[in-house]
Write a structure and sequence with these properties.
14 strands, 2 domains, alpha/beta, globular, Rossmann fold, 12 helices, Glutathione S-transferase Yfyf (Class Pi), Chain A, domain 2
Length: 357
């Protein structure tokens, strides 16, 4: 899958923009605050239905206007195409695929799988488990088909159990949700473990190309304690859950610990090496998606040269070019672009306008 056309209207600094990307490499250059990251954000909206910026979608409306619209045409492997769109006004955000007003975020995620490497990608290693769960579950969602229905059932039952806990309902009204939680959690956990097995088989080779021969180890924490299963863990923690007012164990607390040469990755490598390692993980996910579903996700890399020396930039660029999918990369200066990436399309952003070349 790849984006064949991107159109923006009243999106941040852009009054209008209309570009036709290359199906392979797309390099975007421009000064800071020129709109380079905004173009990546627009594509991210089309594939995730939300912004990767913490400010959320409302500030993305261009100053002095009331709404933004982002639309894209997407080519899919069987020769068909889809048109997707995201719009936001004071009433909220709306999604559309092929004219369907009932489109939701999951439809967009299925239509345009994409991964993002931004200057804050080190959060995957440095910060809380939710970043690593997000990384893990993106891959599981796309290749383990039993995962998402089970995850949705688990979240519904968890919400009801937490409501009962918060309201201090009788224990019988709390544990009534445990059976559904356990059934769904077992599928979620099995899907995650199957996917991690694939990561274990493929990540070391990808990481070695970028970081050298130090072994990368992934350690999965399922989110509950004990060897007797999730049902036993829920029963054992019922009194603690009642005091806390929420369910403290389960797949919603899972984590993926990442180590290099027996040390936690965030303590072992520099910020630039963290970027390389997390990019290796994302590239491995992209390769797995292609191997399992014959789909190549779109890769977005913001400020690729940041915190990377020339050698790392060159090695990373070679791996990106070899991946074979569509990629959008931003750079401050054309001189920072490795030669292997210059065979694609070049765009320059300045004062809210995009020009080719």
């Amino acid at each position: 899958m790849y984006l064949t056309r991107l159109r923006l209207h009243d999106f941040r600094c852009f009054s209008t923009a209309d570009i036709e990307p290359n199906p392979s490499i797309n390099v975007i250059t421009g000064d800071n605050a020129s709109g380079k990251t905004t173009l990546l954000e627009a594509i991210y909206f089309l594939g995730r239905g939300q912004s990767f910026r913490q400010s959320g979608p409302r500030p993305a409306i261009r100053a002095g206007t009331n709404a933004f619209t982002v639309t894209g045409d997407i080519a899919v492997p069987d020769g068909r195409s889809h048109r997707v769109g995201v719009s936001r006004d004071k009433r909220g955000i709306r999604y559309r695929r092929d004219g369907d007003n009932e489109t939701n975020r999951i439809d967009l995620i299925n239509t345009l799988p994409l991964q993002m490497v931004d200057p804050n990608v080190h959060r995957l290693l440095e910060q809380g488990p939710r970043y690593r769960r997000h990384f893990l579950d993106w891959g599981v969602f796309h290749v383990e088909h039993a995962f998402f229905p089970a995850w949705r059932r688990f979240r519904r039952a968890l919400k009801q159990r937490n409501r009962a806990l918060k309201s201090r309902m009788p224990k019988a009204d709390i544990v009534v949700w445990d059976a559904e939680l356990v059934r769904a959690a077992e599928v979620v956990d099995a899907s995650r473990r199957a996917y991690i097995d694939h990561l274990h088989a493929n990540l070391p080779g990808q990481a070695a190309k970028l970081l050298g021969d130090e072994p990368v180890v992934l350690e999965y924490d399922c989110g509950w304690r004990g060897d007797d299963g999730y049902g036993a863990a829920l029963a054992a923690s019922l009194d603690q859950d009642t005091r806390a007012g929420f369910t403290q164990q389960g797949p919603h607390r899972a984590d993926l610990r990442i180590s290099i040469a027996t040390a936690v990755a965030r303590d072992w490598v520099s910020r630039g090496q963290q970027k390389i390692l997390t990019t290796a993980m994302l590239l491995t996910q992209a390769q797995l998606l292609y191997a399992r579903r014959h789909v190549r996700p779109v890769l977005l890399i913001d400020d690729m040269a940041a915190e990377l020396g020339a050698r790392y930039r060159q090695v990373l660029a070679e791996e990106i070019a070899a991946l074979g999918g569509q990629c959008f990369l931003t750079f401050l200066e054309p001189d920072l672009v490795p030669d292997v990436l210059k065979g694609g399309s070049m765009f320059h952003v300045e004062h809210g306008a995009v020009r080719t070349g």
